[in-house]
Structure formats: structure tokens, C-alpha cells
Automatic annotation (TrEMBL):
It is an enzyme of class 1 (oxidoreductase). Its EC number is 1.4.1.13. It comes from the Bacteria. InterPro entries: FAD/NAD-bd_sf, FAD/NAD-binding_dom, Glutamate_Synthase. It holds the Pfam family Pyr_redox_2. GO terms for molecular function: glutamate synthase (NADPH) activity. This is Glutamate synthase [NADPH] small chain. Keywords: Oxidoreductase. Residues 38-292 form the FAD/NAD(P)-binding domain.
Length: 321
């Protein structure tokens, strides 16, 4: 089994996304070492679809499994988006994990020290930007979110076991930041040298949606204001995997959200499977571990005609109960 990884180290978002202060690289390295000891080969700096031909991989291997993640971030096409200092969250977070582990930064340095930081997006990635900016010594950190403030407790329309959309306050938030909800970001304002200096925002009020329709919002009259901002991080989620490169080279069918379409874990191409965020959209580590296990079972069945690998459908715990 060979893993092809375009970065110089494997680990994906665990290494180059989730901040080092939440997950140390020593833990990732230990897991990778265990896999290597079990016989897995790792080829790094191997960008499939760019410097590794994906079609050739299909010739060389019985099965190709696509686990490239969901990497295209949602953008914010407002005036001033092009100004210096406006970055996707991942540009900042990935670089900081490199810095924290004495690796080559590879991209223009982004540092929050002494800056007024605005994080746009109230989710977990935004929270990671808050924690990282605090560690850099930012002058101020403001996190804005377009959606309303979530409830503190599980709403009745989201019963267990569904994942409730409730208010989350992470340790990064506790370390210090201003959080605002129902905020429309209208314009980045720059100086004469093309650097972002401020952000024009306004309060919004969400309308009650008509049945079957998406809710709209109206701007609260007189609420428009300008806040200082010399570093902005766009943390508004991820859309889908990159459609170019390996997916285009292998002519992989996508679903209506732009993720890899699968039957089980099998793609439209024989012997090509997909798992993880590339298949489901941006998710969680535990879900991806589960995807890996379930997919391994499907691949084993494809190669061998049957499988005894443990998975949900063949749980040793359940069968022993
Ligand atoms: C900032 C951030 C913080 C997060 N924090 C948490 C958290 O605290 N807890 C949690 O459970 N989840 C968290 N998540 C989500 C979690 O990290 C992901 O759901 C999970 O890592 C996805 O795993 P994956 O293997 O599918 O993809 P990824 O982790 O994205 O790995 C994909 C790998 O494929 C490589 N790759 C892509 N294309 C190619 C190619 N063509 N050739 C070769 N290699 C390629 C990439 O370089 C990468 O190494 C976070 C996500 C982000 C963005």
C-alpha cells in the first residue's frame, strides 16, 4: 500500500490545519511511524494529477483510493477582497503549524502580532484563527458571523442523536476575542499602499422564511459601522474538493455539491474509491477515521470477493454481545 501526499509530510489537516496547540505533531508522527512499521509506503511531494500521473497509478495499482480532502474555501467577494492582509484561514493556520515546527513556510509570512485581526466566520476554523492570533500577540481580535447566535441548549427540533447546532465557546475564545453574530461584512477598506485597514460591517435581521424557502435577511437601518482591521481571515467553510488535477484526470463524477459521487465508496471509475472529506465534504476527524475503516472493508470485498474486516456492518463488539 502506498500513500501519495503532495506536501512534504503526511497528516493532512491534522498536520497543516488543526493548530499545533490543539494537536501536537508528535502524536501524528507516532501514528505514521506505526503505519510505516506495518508496511505502508509513503511518497511525499507527490502531487497526483500534477507531478504524479493519476492514470498511471490506475495502471500500477489494483485500487486507487482518493482521500484528498475538501480544500476549496468559500470566498467573500466584496469590495477590497484583493487588499493585502485579507487571507483564507488556511493560509494562516497551515503556515503557523509550519512555523511552530520549524518547517519551511513556503508562502509570504502572515503574522498577527500587533494587528487588529478580524475573523470572518464563527465556526471551528474561525476559532482556530482566534487562538493562533492570540498566541501571536494580536492587538485585538474580532470574530464576526452572519448567522444568529446559536442557542445554549439543544433545540427541540434537533433531538439526540442529531448533532445540535448550539453555542460553542472554545478555549481559544476564552483566551480572548470579541464575538458578534448577525453581522454583514460589506467592504474591506485599504490604505494608499493596498493594505487592508478597516472593515465596513452592518447588523442584519433574519426574516422568517416562507415554507420551503431559504431565509433572507434585512440590514438594520443605521447599524453600518467601520471597525479596525489590518488582518482578516476568511473562515466561512469549505465548498468541495479541487475539481481539477486528479479528479479531472481520472474523469471522476461529482455530486451536486461538488464532492466525489460514490456508490458506497466506489466512484464512477472501476477500481477507484473515495473516502473522507473528499467524498462527504468538510467533516470531523472521527468521521474520517470511520470513513477509512468502512472504505477499507469495501475495497477488501472488491479485491477478494468477500471481507472479514471489521466495520459497522460487521462489528466485533456487536457480534460478541
Ligand atoms: C482549521 C481546521 C480545524 C479543524 N479542527 C478539527 C478538530 O478540532 N476536530 C475534528 O474532528 N476535525 C477538525 N477539522 C476537520 C478535520 O481536520 C477534517 O475533517 C479531516 O482532517 C479530513 O480528513 P481527510 O483525510 O479526508 O482530508 P485531509 O485531512 O484534508 O487530508 C487530505 C490530504 O490529501 C492531500 N492531497 C490532496 N490532493 C492531493 C493530490 N492530488 N495528490 C496528493 N495529495 C493530495 C492533502 O495535501 C492532504 O494531506 C478541522 C478542519 C480545519 C480546516
Amino acid at each position: 500500500m502506498t500513500v501519495f501526499e503532495r506536501d512534504e509530510k503526511v497528516g493532512g489537516l491534522l498536520r497543516f490545519g488543526i493548530p499545533d496547540f490543539k494537536l501536537g505533531m508528535d502524536i501524528i508522527d507516532r501514528k505514521i511511524d506505526l503505519m510505516a512499521a506495518a508496511g505502508v509506503q509513503f511518497e511525499v511531494n507527490a502531487h497526483v494529477g500534477v507531478n504524479v500521473n493519476a492514470k498511471q497509478l490506475r495502471q500500477d495499482f489494483d485500487v486507487v483510493l482518493l482521500t484528498g480532502g475538501s480544500t476549496v474555501p468559500r470566498d467573500l467577494p466584496i469590495p477590497g477582497r484583493e487588499l493585502n492582509g485579507v487571507h483564507f484561514a488556511m493560509e494562516f493556520l497551515a503556515q503557523n503549524n509550519r512555523r511552530a515546527n520549524n518547517m519551511v513556510l513556503k508562502t509570504e509570512e502572515i503574522h498577527a502580532n500587533g494587528k487588529h485581526v478580524v475573523v470572518i466566520g464563527g465556526g471551528d476554523t474561525g476559532s482556530d484563527c482566534v487562538g493562533t492570533s492570540n498566541r501571536h500577540g494580536a492587538t485585538s481580535i474580532t470574530q464576526v458571523e452572519i448567522m444568529p447566535i446559536p442557542p445554549e441548549k439543544r433545540p427541540v427540533n434537533q433531538p439526540w442523536p442529531s448533532y445540535p447546532m448550539i453555542m460553542k465557546t472554545s478555549t481559544s475564545h476564552e483566551e480572548g476575542c470579541d464575538r458578534h453574530w448577525n453581522i454583514l461584512t460589506k467592504e474591506f477598506i485599504g490604505d494608499d499602499e493596498g493594505n487592508v485597514k478597516a472593515l465596513r460591517i452592518a447588523d442584519i435581521q433574519w426574516d422568517e422564511p416562507a415554507p420551503g424557502e431559504r431565509p433572507g435577511f434585512t440590514e438594520v437601518a443605521g447599524s453600518e459601522r467601520i471597525i479596525p482591521c489590518d488582518l482578516a481571515f476568511l473562515a466561512m467553510g469549505f465548498l468541495h474538493p479541487e475539481p481539477t488535477g486528479v479528479l479531472a484526470q481520472l474523469d471522476i463524477a461529482l455530486d451536486d455539491r461538488g464532492n466525489v459521487a460514490t456508490q458506497g465508496f466506489a466512484t464512477n471509475q472501476k477500481g477507484v474509491f473515495a473516502a473522507g472529506d473528499m467524498r462527504t465534504g468538510q467533516s470531523l476527524v472521527v468521521r474520517c477515521i470511520n470513513e477509512g475503516r468502512e472504505c477499507a472493508r469495501d475495497i477488501d470485498a472488491y479485491l477478494m470477493g468477500n471481507t472479514n474486516l471489521e466495520a459497522k456492518a460487521n462489528s466485533l463488539m456487536l457480534s460478541n454481545a
